[in-house]
Specification:
By secondary structure, the protein is an alpha/beta fold. It has helices spanning 20-33, 41-45, 52-61, 70-87, 97-106, 119-129, 152-160, 175-184, 223-236; strands at residues 7-10, 17-18, 92-93, 110-114, 137-139, 168-172, 187-190, 208-209. The chain has 2 domains: 7-18 and 92-236, Rossmann fold, CATH 3.40.50.1000; 20-90, DNA polymerase, domain 1 (Orthogonal Bundle). It is built from 9 helices and 8 strands. The protein is elongated. Specifically catalyzes the dephosphorylation of 2-phosphoglycolate. Is involved in the dissimilation of the intracellular 2-phosphoglycolate formed during the DNA repair of 3'-phosphoglycolate ends, a major class of DNA lesions induced by oxidative stress.
Amino acid sequence: MRFQVKLVMFDLDGTLLDTAPQIAEAANRMLVALGKPMLPQAQISSYIGEGVHKLIKRCLTGDMEQEPELALFDKAQPLYHDFYVAHANDSQPFAGVVPALQQLKKQGYLLACVTNKPEAFTLPLLQKAGLAGFFEMVVSGDSLPKKKPDPMQLLHICQKLAVLPAEAMLVGDSETDIQAAHAAGCFVVTVPYGYNQGRAIDVATVDATVQQLTELVRLLEPPALLKQGLEKTIQIS
């Protein structure tokens, strides 16, 4: 099966970039500064995916849903921000990311990055990793009033790029991405190496899975071929 899409949107953390080591380092420095014990990187990685506020709260409480004291959270936020800024740009693309983006761009797809990470972190990360130039649009966690799993970010990108949601695909690593794509009416493809809160992706809920992004190219019908097919149909008619 090959998908006929014009737009491919990518999640950032756990899909394009391996950001977990830097996030874990910043979170543990924050915890130490607050007099709290450090956490294993695997545990912190399981907290990634729903924005920095939830990440900090989960690190403070050791729980996915529990709320920390407001005063503690207010103290923790700037600490995490400062520690993360110092190390964020050390994050590297996962294997296959750069050649996949190069090939997709060459074939004429519109590309976008959609993440729950704040813009202040997102844009420098993409620049430092050499990925920023691939994307027509970058929508961060604070770009709009709502973020994934709400479909607002995806629908906003589709509208701005004049693409129907049914002609778009989201590539991500988590249940958050799956829910957003379903709500928006987009195709969704997942990778197994990301940060889905420590759980395996339920493959029954996605259109396809790829081990790395270079495999994505084989799943897509190049836009140029779609256009040629349409022109032939018009001529025959």
